[in-house]
Input
Amino acid sequence: MILFSTISYWCYLCILLINTVLSFIKSNERKIVWLRILSFYLLGLFIIQIASDVTAYFTSDNLYFSHIYFYFQFLTLGLLYHNLFKKYPKQQKFIRIYVLLTTVYLLIYYIISPAMWFKFNLTEIIITNYLLIVCSLMYNYNTLSKRRLLGYFNIGVTSYSILCCSLFLYGNVMAKVDLSAAIYVWTLHFLAIIFFQIMIFVQLIKLFPFRK
Output
C-alpha cells in the first residue's frame, strides 16, 4: 500500500505541474479572468505541496498544511465561480457571504483553540468543500440549456469535493479504531485529486487545443 501511495503522489505532482505550466501559458495568451484564477490556484497547490513535503522531511509534522490547503482551495475556487456567475448576482452574493462567514468562523476557531492548528479538522474540510459542491451544482443549473464552457472542470470539482468529504468522514471514524487507516484515506484522497487534475487537463486541452 505504501508503494501505491508513493506512485499516486508522484502522479499527482506531475500532472499538477503540467496543468500549472499549461494554464499559465494559456492565461498569458488569452487574458481570461477565470483562467488566471485557475492558474493561481494550481500554482498555489504546487507550492503548498512542495512546502509540505520539505517540512515533513525535516520535522515530520506537516499536518497544519492541510488547513492551508483546504482554505486556499476554498477561497480560490470560490473566487473562480464568483467570476463565472457574473449574470447571477444573487449567487455571487451567496458566495461572498459564505466565504466571509467561513473565514470569520475559522479565524475565531483557531484563535480560541490554537492547538487545533496542528490537528486534523473534519469540520473545516466539510464547510470548505460544501461551498464548492453548491457552486458546481449552481453552475450545472445555470447551464442547463447552454453550452457548458467548463463542463469537465465542473465534473472534477463536484466529484472531488464529494469524495473528499466522504473519505475524511470515513477516515475520521476509522482513525478512532485503527490509526493505520490514515494511509488508505490519504491514498484515496490523492486518487481523487488525480482525477480532478485530469479533468482540469482535459478541460484546458478542449478549450485551448495545441496548434501547429
Observations:
- The chain has a mean pLDDT of 88.
- The chain is about 80% helix and 0% strand.
